[in-house]
Amino acid sequence: MAAFDQLHAQNHKITELSNVFLYLVRERSMCDTDVTCNVFFELTTHVREHMELVDRDLCGKLLSYPDQSVKNTANRFLSGSTEIKRIFSAYVKQWCSEKRHSLTISDHSAFVQDTEQMFALVMDRLQRETEYLYPLIRKLEEQERAVA
């Protein structure tokens, strides 16, 4: 069911890019550089791809399990994913121009604060996946192998 190597690689890449981006944007002059913009757009792409993979390949399959507690876990993650996607889209819309491939920062301190909050939310989600979702899937896969 799960490609844990791919998920862990995505988690690592998102964490790495997030840390670099947060480091860069704390200095106002760095916000207008191509490097910072490239990191931002690569980061947003990785976050979106990861959320879709987890929703589709993990949670989507967990919803088909007969155990209601498994379905409830999948529903909680899907619900959280919907909210994070909504907040993430609003963040991207407010602080960048995807068409011009640039950041649009009118208030640097507000941007930094929003950025720190946004990526703290993403990091929290990745941690919850690692601590709750992945172990659940491993357990279910082991049970399936034991039955087979």
Q: Would you mind describing this structure in some detail?
A:
By secondary structure, this protein is an all-alpha fold. It has a single domain (1-147), classed as Up-down Bundle (Four Helix Bundle (Hemerythrin (Met), subunit A)), CATH 1.20.120. It is 80% helix and 3% strand. The chain has helices at 4-25, 34-62, 68-95, 108-147; strands at 96-97, 102-103. Strands 1-2 form a two-stranded antiparallel sheet. It is elongated and about 60 Å long. The two termini are 15 Å apart.
Average pLDDT score? 94
Order of helices and strands: HHHEEH
Structural class: mainly alpha
What would the CATH topology be? Four Helix Bundle (Hemerythrin (Met), subunit A)
The end-to-end span amounts to 15 Å
Summarize the main sheet.
2 strands, antiparallel
**Percent range for β-strand residues:** under 5%
Number of helices: 4
Under the CATH scheme, which class? Answer: Mainly Alpha
Give the fraction of residues assigned to helices.
Answer: over 70%
How many distinct folded domains?
Answer: 1
The geometry reads as: elongated
Do you know the CATH architecture? Up-down Bundle
How do the strands line up in the largest sheet? 1-2
Q: How many beta-strand runs?
A: 2
Poorly predicted residue ranges: none
Radius of gyration: 17 Å
Protein name: Hemerythrin HHE cation binding domain-containing protein
